[in-house]
Amino acid sequence: MEQIQQSEHERSPAEQLLTFRLADQEYAVDILRVQEIRGWTTPTSLPNVPVWIKGIVNLRGTIVPIVDLRERFGLFAEACGATTVVIVLRARSRDRDRVVGVVVDSVNDVVRPKEGATQPPPDLGTVVDLRFVLGLVSSEERLSILLDVDTLLDFDTIEAPGLQTRTP
Question: Is residue 131 part of a domain?
Answer without folding.
Answer: yes
